[in-house]
Amino acid sequence: MTSKIAVIIPVYNGAQFVERAINSVLNQTFQDFRIIVVNDGSTDETKKILRKYETNNKITIYSFSINRGQAFSNNFALRNAHESYIAYLDCDDIMHPSRLEKQYAFLENNSEIGLVYCECNTIDKMGNKKAENRSFNQQIGDGLDFINSLLVLNLIDRSSVMHRKSCTDLVGSFDIRITGSDDWDMWVRISEKFGLKKINEPLVDRYIHGENISLTRPNKIYYHENAILIIKKAYTRRKSPKFMNWLIISKRLRVLLLRMFLDKFGNYRHRIINRIMFMIDWPISLFISSKKNLIN
User: Fold this and answer.
1) Hey, is 109 helix, strand or coil?
2) Which residue in 106, 127, 113 sits closest to 201, CA to CA?
3) What CATH class does 5-215 carry?
4) Rounded CA gap, 196 and 163, in Å?
5) Alpha-carbon span 64 to 87, nearest angstrom
6) 38-88 pLDDT tens trace
7) Which residues make beta-bridge pairs with 143?
8) Domain boundaries in the chain?
9) Pairing mode, if any, of strands 162-164 and 113-123?
10) What is the pLDDT of residues 196-225, one digit of tens each?
11) In what order do the strands lie in the sheet with 5-11?
């Protein structure tokens, strides 16, 4: 008999974290789930850790001989998921015990919603929970419609998402070309076809340990280059008016400034550039939000 929820956990060299992540799912109050773990060519002790779970009938483990990337791993898991609902968890994060129960109940009771996500606690490398201090970008984003605000910035953490399988059946797979931002692109595409909703409660602990892929990349230019591609793809799908071009111009200017100054000044100047450029993006996003009827 098929479970209600498939929980997808891709892992690459996550031996020190993955057991904690899997156990957080096994300890859920809602137990009608299957965990799909994709070992994405790990070269550490991940494979040895996963052997502990090979006889657990709630867990399906797939292993690649080489690293293919998180988008590829998620797509592989989706193709092998027959459950009605899909939840995600990065291998270095954990779920609170009631996460699946609350998100499943919400989707069951709100048929117009395709994707639900939640707040995340941030845990530092010492194990301390940071005081809730959501960024200005995140706070203003909550006030906009998802379809357009998601083009300005990614408001949704991958580990916080549960969606109907029908969402990805309709909009397609994660885009493996957009390394590091494939989830952002996916949420944008889902928002164009389904309702999205946030549960204003932390149901996931997100760990910042210094080895997160998002932190170990040489710089953040790739993020803005990916944003340009995501906006262009949305423009093509929606046949949207020219005002969306202003978002692309803003992102291109940001990439240019970062290429000029990042190596010279490092992360401090990077943050300043991002804040200045966001003050350009913000009025554009307000305009886009007021034109939501033009996306159809």
Assistant:
1) helix
2) 106
3) alpha beta
4) 9
5) 21
6) 999 999 999 999 999 999 999 999 999 999 999 999 999 999 999 999 999
7) none
8) 5-215, 221-295
9) antiparallel
10) 999 989 999 999 865 545 544 445 677 878
11) 59-64, 33-40, 5-11, 85-88, 162-164, 113-123, 195-207, 94-95
